[in-house]
Amino acid sequence: MSPSVEIVGVASAAFVSTSLDNLAVLIALFASPDLRPRRVAAGYLVASWAVAAAAWGGSKLFDLVPAPDLGFLGVVPLALGIQRVFALRHSAPDVAKPVPTAGGVVVTVLLTLSQSADNSIVYVTLFADSASVLDPIVFATLVACPVAWCASALWLARRSPLAGPLRRTMRFVVPFLLIAVGAYVLADTVTDVLVH
Q1: How far apart, in whole angstroms, are the C-alpha atoms of residue 194 and residue 185?
Q2: pTM for the model
Q3: What count of other Cβ atoms lies within 10 Å of the Cβ of residue 167?
Q4: Closest Cα partner for 179 from 77, 98, 52, 41?
Q5: How distant, in Å, are the alpha carbons of 40, 57, 124, 135, 140 from that of 75?
Q6: How far apart are CA 181 and CA 128, in angstroms?
Q7: Confidence (pLDDT) at 144
Q8: Backbone torsions φ then ψ of 192, nearest 5 degrees
Q9: With contact defined as beta carbons under 8 Å apart, do 44 and 135 qualify?
Q10: Averaged in consecutive runs of 10 residues, what is the pLDDT profile of the chain (196 residues)?
């Protein structure tokens, strides 16, 4: 498999594993009769793209770290995944947070940013560990995924019986996706920074 294809898969897994909370909120926002779907989508895309851009920029700070040590950043998503596996045993399923009914773009931006700490951490890790030549591909993937997320949320909001089972199923899948991303970053792969 080529490094470009491989990094698209890893970046997509990183997005999905850190964005399920956003999917639940998006479904609720799209289902609200008081909010226009275009404004919700615009707010979510602006916030998601800003997080991806900030992570790319933030990853440049790791240029000061010796390249062989960057792979150890994989411990971060790995630890997040393991923590979520343990949380599965000790907690009830996530309940969607109440969503304000007033607003539009600004409400969606603020809600998305408030839930994006894990996105930022995982994205910075992925950018820092990847070869610089692959960073635009990682960024393009992190720009495309939110568009697909919006379309999925809108579809699920219109067919709400599917939303609950999906959320329950993905609750068990997400920790293992995070562990896989962490293991990938820790591994010495063809997409690593050492490729340059």
Answers
A1: 12
A2: 0.67
A3: 19
A4: 77
A5: 34, 21, 13, 20, 24
A6: 13
A7: 97
A8: -65, 160
A9: no
A10: 86 89 79 80 94 88 58 63 74 48 70 79 86 90 95 82 62 65 62 44
**Residue of 131, 112, 133 lying closest to 52 (CA atoms):** 112
| 3-state helix, strand and coil shares in percent for the chain, rounded to the nearest 5 | 80, 0, 15
C-alpha torsion angle, residues 99, 102, 104, 109 (rounded to 10): -50
The residue behind tokens 């293991």 is 183
Sequence-ordered list of residues with C-beta below 8 angstroms from that of 154, at least 6 positions apart, any chain: 26, 30, 37, 41
Residues 116, 168: Cα–Cα separation, whole Å: 20
Amino acid (one-letter) located at 132:
S
Distances (CA, A) of 48 to 108, 132, 153, 165, 174: 10, 21, 14, 25, 19
Sole residue written with tokens 């997320």: 149
Amino acid code (one letter) for 24: A
Q: Which amino acid is at 186?
A: L
